[in-house]
Amino acid sequence: MEAETLAVGHESSRAAAQVQCCEIFREVFVVSYPRLVVQLYAVTGDAAEAEDLVQEAFVRAAAAGRRFTKLDNPEAWLRTVAVNIHRSRWRKRRNFSRIRDRVAARPTDLPALEDRLDVIEALRGLPAGQREAVALHYLADLDVAEVARTLRISEGTVKSRLSRGREALALAMSDIEGSDHV
């Protein structure tokens, strides 16, 4: 009987703490959200990006739970998180723009495929699942079981994707070859 009483008491105190945590979180949101959006707008120059960053910071705060509500200055924590997310996104965009031209350019150093860029173009037209299965099976020379393990799908799914992929490739290649002779 005492164990049940303790368990009920523990549950009710945990529920009360959770309610208090939600109230603190809600209060911080109401007070800080508008200010943080304005501050991040000044940092980013983009209102939509500023709102997105602040929302992401609040999502992370919610995930932190009680650790967040016990902070001395939760708004400063949110601002720091939002600025760090912005910096991370900016770095990713900068790094991507540096390599975008190299990635977008057709490779010229693929000797086995240089005469068959039409096959690569046809592969690009396949749905992702079929393209992955076909590339791993035919280009990486993996058997069906290995493709299934690599893609974490069943062997039956691999066989189905290979069959559909071959059909789609045959159709695409006949269209390409037909247009070459016109």
Descriptive report:
The chain starts with a helix and ends with a helix. Helices cover 82% and strands 0% of the residues. It is elongated. α1 (2-44) packs antiparallel against α2 (47-64). The chain is mostly helical and 182 residues long. The protein has two domains: 2-104; 117-180, Arc Repressor Mutant, subunit A (Orthogonal Bundle).
Number of strands: 0
Helix content: over 70%
Rg calculated over all Cα atoms:
27 Å
Low-confidence stretches: none
| SSE arrangement, N to C | HHHHHHHH
Into how many domains do the coordinates divide?
2
List keywords for this structure.
Arc Repressor Mutant, subunit A; mainly alpha; 82% helix
Task: Describe, in short, the structure shown.
With 182 residues, the protein is an all-alpha fold. It has helices at 2-44, 47-64, 66-69, 74-104, 117-124, 128-139, 144-151, 155-180.
